[in-house]
Amino acid sequence: MVVKFVHCESEPFGPDDGSAAPAVPQPLLERHGARVLNPSEVTVAPKEPRPRSTAYRTGAMLFGWELLNDDRKFRDIKAFVNQKMGVDLVMPRNHKETRHCGRGPRPVGLQPVEGRSEALRVDAWQVLQALRASEHRGDSMQISVEHLMFGTVDIGGTPWEASGAPTGTTYVRNGTTGRIPVTYFGPPPARQELDRRPVIAVVDSGLGPNDWFGMPDRSTPPPPGGFLAVYPQLQDAIRAQEQQNQNATPTQLIRTFWDAPVTDNPLVGTLDRDTGHGTFIAGIIRQVAPDANVLAIRVLHSDGVAYEGDVLLALWGLVDRVERAQHGHPEDMVDVVSLSLGYFDENPDAEGYTGMISQAIDALRRLGVLVVAAAGNDATSRRFYPAALAERPENGAGPQVLSVGALNPSNTKALFSNEAPWVRCWATGAGIVSTFPKDVQGAISAGVSPRTDRGALDPDDFRAGFAVWDGTSFAAPLAAAEITTQMIKVAQDNPAIGLKVVDKDTATERVRAAIEQAQKASG
Q1: What does residue 467 show for φ and ψ, rounded to 5 degrees?
Q2: Phi/psi at 61 (nearest 5 deg)?
Q3: For the CA atoms of the chain, what is the radius of gyration?
Q4: Does position 523 have pLDDT exceeding 80, yes or no?
Q5: In the predicted model, what is the mean pLDDT of residues 493-521?
Q6: What sign results for the dihedral spanned by CA atoms 465, 471, 472, 473?
Q7: pLDDT (0 to 100) of residue 435
Q8: pLDDT band at 455; cut points 50, 70, 90
Q9: 96 or 54, which is more confident?
């Protein structure tokens, strides 16, 4: 295990390589009601910069909380969109009931106006540009398309096709997405007693059964008081938000914290590309920071896609939880957030980037929470958000975002990892062994089966409960776990920043001290 920190002398907001976002397969876009923005073809409002490529959902937009709750402004915008575009805005029915999940943006559905006789192509980008070219331009700064975000596990130029791995590399194994089943005989590392265990929130693909976590099957949730915990109230809010948008745009539902289904095509039966992603990350943290706890929140579908609105709901829900912890409920504290997902934004100006994801992360930072984000696996320097927020100065807003690239076991930088001045930390992200849902079995069979009691290695039978995998997805939680381990040490050495003290100033100082110790340990 290696974690290295980078001291970057270059100017923030420097140029990237100008790359387009990787091409997204059409079936994936159709499944999630999405489209790729083509900069050479799109409509752009006056005074707006020419956008860069990104993936977004056509039948939904994100509205800021204040705008959503200003009845007059929302009604005026709705009337304009009705008349100008022939599109109706579908107000979220339950947004006021989810204030416990923070006052962040919520998705608003787009539908053709009822009774319209002519054909209409509903497109959130077109609606947004019409608003920005109108008298509603000021309010439209609180409105955005809803981006597709992608898990950062698959290798080599696209976030979803492992077959695109650089020619001749060894990150793709046995015709799968790089993960292979292995056997590991060791027990989960022992845990010491602490006054309060630091909590790492893993906003990812949820969990699958594994004996390390006391979950033998999918009828058994994480045991109370154990290493793993889930957040049913927030998970219910995510499900309700997705259910509401089903009528406006194709939507895949995340129903619970369980990572399921394991395949999106049961007729073929091959495993989805991010099946087991969250369980694998939980196992990394269990190995490196056994004295911490993990709070698992599912936003990532097993095909590697997350809706920006769901990610925002999860992050603002964590903001609400930390605020509650700092006002008399320390048992609700979250110390670190690990994000192994992201997207390429359409804004060509990094300094002018105002993505809604940055607002949620800044709110966490102001509370003293460290956000650790994977740099992405596209071998590019194009800014991948939220990891690229690492280049923004602290400016009194709490710990900077820590962006993490991937190293090989030899400590060289992995061929697939993104690399740019905004990548501030490097951690082992290739050839990692960790936990995997033990009930996952795909359709790929062993290559040789001469007799019924003999066979070759089956590349997608994970009954042993462990796998080997690669990606910045796994470098990021490893770095988060190492810093959390250092957090425990500095808290034990200095009672003034002890773990039981959870106010924002102490939390910020504790994170800074932990990062400083981790930097020293890395040499």
Answers
A1: -150, 165
A2: -135, 160
A3: 22
A4: no
A5: 96
A6: negative
A7: 98
A8: confident
A9: 54
Tokens of 67: 């705008």
Closest CA to 514 of 200, 295, 152: 200
In this predicted structure, what is the pLDDT of residue 164? Answer: 42
Dihedral of alpha carbons 460, 462, 464, 465, sign: positive
Report the alpha-carbon angle 95-101-105, nearest 5: 55
| pLDDT at residue 97, rounded to an integer | 65
Spatial separation of the C-alpha atoms in residues 169 and 156, rounded to whole Å: 9
CA 448 to CA 451: how far, in whole Å?
9
pLDDT at 396 over 90: no
Q: What is the mean pLDDT of residues 2-18?
A: 76
- Give backbone dihedrals phi and psi of 475, rounded to 5 degrees, phi first: -65, -40
Q: Where are the alpha helices (DSSP H) in 133-210?
A: 137-140
* Distance from chain centroid for Cα 56: 16
Whole-number Å distance between alpha carbons of 217 and 185: 20
What would the two tokens of residue 281 be?
A: 């990350």
Residues 6+ apart with CB under 8 A from 197: 291, 292, 293, 499
Q: Is the dihedral of CA 255, 148, 93, 319 positive or negative?
A: positive
> What is the distance between the alpha carbons of residues 512 and 523, in angstroms, rounded to a whole number?
17
User: pLDDT value at position 165?
Assistant: 46
DSSP state of 180: E
Query: In this structure, is the dihedral angle defined by the CA atoms of residues 343, 349, 355 and 359, taken in order, positive or negative?
Result: positive
Threshold 0.85, pTM exceeds: yes
Burial of 167 (0-12, 13-18, 19+ CB in 10 A): exposed
Helix spans in 348-456 (H): 356-366
Reduced to 3 states (helix: H, G, I; strand: E, B; else coil), residue 86 is: coil
Are 175 and 456 within 8 A, CB to CB?
no
The three-class DSSP label of residue 504 is helix
- Beta-strand relationship, 370-374 and 336-339: parallel
The closest of 71, 438, 480 to 292, measured between CA atoms, is 480
Tokens 């951690």 sit on residue: 427
Q: According to the model, what pLDDT value does residue 212 have? A: 96
> Strand 228-230 relative to strand 180-182: parallel, antiparallel, unpaired?
unpaired
Residue 288, both tokens: 């490196």
Beta-bridge partner residues of 182: 466
Beta-strand relationship, 199-204 and 293-298: parallel
Backbone angles phi, psi at 151, to 5 degrees: -60, 150
Check if the beta carbon of residue 420 is closer than 8 Å to that of residue 472: no
Please state, in angstroms and rounded to a whole number, the distance separating the CA atoms of residues 99 and 69. 12
